[in-house]
Amino acid sequence: MRITPLEYVTADNLSQAVELLDSAGPQAAVLAGGTDLVLNLKKKRACPCILVSLQAIDGIDRICLENGMIRIGAMATHDRLARHPLLREKADILCQAAGLIGSWQIRNAGTIGGNICNASPAGDALPPLLALDAAFVTAGTVGETVISARNFFTGPGQTRLPSGHLLKEIRFPCPPANAAGCYMKLRRRKAVDISIAGVAFQAALNEEGTQVASAGIALGGVAPTPVRVPGAEDLITGRSPKEALENARAIGAACVAAASPIDDLRASADYKRTIVNVFAQRCARHVLTTLKEKGKPQ
């Protein structure tokens, strides 16, 4: 299948990129890693007149810690996320998810920004970002906007990205040392397969190490968008890790209640609910056991 002829422009900087998007309007598409877009171009699911490449822009692939916030440029590849020392130390849940995306070729080319803007309900990076209370910084000709990850996704392939804007950066509060996270997903094969159902579980202790001070639990692949599960989070916060562990089954049930899966070629809705229940409990036991160990006096 051949791609319909179009104009290809490599933006030299962010300002030029947003100006091109603004002037072309809906006839323009953004090229980041291209792992999804190129397939859509070949299959005629996307037929832009102009393609704006971001690959020559400096500085929008950085990963750093500034003023207590972890900042990730939208052009950072999945492979960099999976291996980056800062993320492995502070937000390993995101490394876990990035390392499960596609094949090593896909991880070397695909970007975190593309994964977000593609807005697949099964996108692996999305549940961990919700669990980490991430926000997305978008850039347009009139300036920047910041949109919470919880409010960004509106449906399969649909987001609240403003017209003429592109995703510039992902940011979230740096988890404390006494935090832990876990991401699990079900797939038919061990590699190069999208998620049938996924659970992201992030929690942190208070300064005294006696109670769970914060928790973020999010699901992927079992609703039109990735979803947070505050009902399950409430079963954890304000309790000691030991007490929270006793609620593992209730946590699984709350996650199942928050899911709204559909039957498809990969699995039935009932099977997806079963997986959510099992994975939520496994994640809870892993994270809370880790926190229990961290909370012990040295």
At the fourth level of CATH, the homologous superfamily of the largest domain is CO dehydrogenase flavoprotein, C-terminal domain
The biggest sheet, with number of strands, parallel, antiparallel or mixed sense and barrel status, is: 5 strands, antiparallel
Our count of helices gives 13
The helix content is 25-40%
What coarse outline follows from CA principal-axis ratios? globular
Number of strands: 14
Please give the CATH class of the largest domain: Alpha Beta
Number of domains: 3
Element-level helix/strand string? EHEHEEEHHHHHHEEHEEEEEEEHHHH
Output the structural class: alpha+beta
Q: Termini, distance in Å?
A: 62 Å
Q: Strand order within the widest sheet? A: 4-5-10-6-7
Average the pLDDT over all residues and give the rounded result.
92
- Tell me the β content: 15-25%
CATH domain topology of the largest domain: Enolase-like, domain 1
Provide the CATH architecture of the largest domain: 2-Layer Sandwich
Poorly predicted parts: none
Radius of gyration, in Å, reads 19 Å
Q: How would you describe this protein?
A:
There is one protein chain. The protein is an alpha+beta fold. Helix content is 35%, strand content 25%. It contains 13 helices and 14 strands. A five-stranded antiparallel sheet has the order 4-5-10-6-7. Strands 11-12-13-14 form a four-stranded antiparallel sheet. α12 packs across α13 (269-294).
